[in-house]
Amino acid sequence: MSKIANVSAHQIMDSRREPTIETEVTTQAGSKGVASVPSGESKGIYEAATVDVTKAVQYVNGWLRQKVSGMEITSQRHIDRAMIEFDGTDNKARFGANAILSISLAASRAASLEEQIPLYQYLGLLISLRPQYKIPSPMFNLINGGQHAKNNLKIQEFMVVPTGFPTFSEKLEAGLKIFDSIGKLLKQKGISAKFGDEGGFAPNLANEQAAVEILLEAIKMSGYEAKKHVWIALDVAASSFPPGFRYDSRFFMDLINHYPIIAIEDPFAQDEWHEWSQLRIELEKAGREILLVGDDVFTTNLSRLQRGVTSYVGNSILVKLNQIGTLSETLDVIDMAKRQQYTHIVSHRSGETNDDYIADLAVATGASYLKAGASNPQRRERMVKYERIVQIEKELGG
After folding, report:
1. Residues 186 and 203 sit within 8 Å (Cβ to Cβ)
2. Which terminus in the chain has less CB density within 10 A, N or C?
3. Is the pTM of this model over 0.70?
4. Which residues carry out catalysis?
5. Mean pLDDT over all residues of the chain?
6. In whole angstroms, what is the distance from residue 169 CA to residue 138 CA?
7. Which CATH number fits domain 137-395: 2.60.40.150, 3.20.20.120, 3.30.1300.10, 3.40.50.720?
């Protein structure tokens, strides 16, 4: 099998016009895998550390290239472990998760090219000799708030989740129609709105409930029925709230009782373990089958997920590759989530690139949902992920 011949990194701009890293891994046989790393605006404090992009590029082109050169391209765990041990810190603070992840992902892509199979198939084989692929449902963030928008909404993401359609292509079509309907509704109501970081509308509204009402109006205007074709999901991003502000469990129970909500992400901050477990207990007592999704509380970290399981926190985990910094560690977290009956949702970041890697990851790992931002045709960094799922769906025969 071919070995790594060269590693080369350079700087690119992400969707927020901020610098990030893109890396190319080349094998002795000439296969070239390229991957770029996104960045988040609302970051959990337990995420792996990043370094300045200029330094990340230097580390990849220097010490890290020397470390991984000559390694077997298909030895993903060996490659990742070598970089983790070379870094020598608990959170990748020496070289940065952004530098390490760029090599980890580019190497896996080069390996898939070397094996002459699609990336999702290669990732599936890293997980199991008999992988079971699954097409996820999309979660479209159509109204942006919190740190993703310059408006007065405290909740960060108001999403529509088309589930009542047989194919991903039809779900994407529904997302596009609902996106257009929101634009028309805001214009009719005389509400001006720019786009937020993730491509959704960012209007100033009376309150959070008004945002949900607009989503429901847009669903109906598009010819769909809530609870039958489309559901609502929220990313509260409570860790990003101003000091002293928080919502209590009663607020969320009221929302769930009034609206067709399928998932609530980060209703409480990253260290509010008791509040998290109490809400899960309340939901179960009420017989509400709601996904209680942990992002900042878990940060795609094996030990924090284990604590969550033992503390009865959440029943679903958001998976972000750059929160932990290697492909292998990400797959380990997904494996634990599955064994503990937690659903997993593969997610983008607010500062994205045109890399569609997470689409293949979602299919390969059997993710229930893919979060990649708004179904906004103008935002290519979001649409390429959804379009990649459509392509994979065709390859798998629907």
Report:
1. yes
2. C
3. yes
4. 198, 320
5. 96
6. 10
7. 3.20.20.120
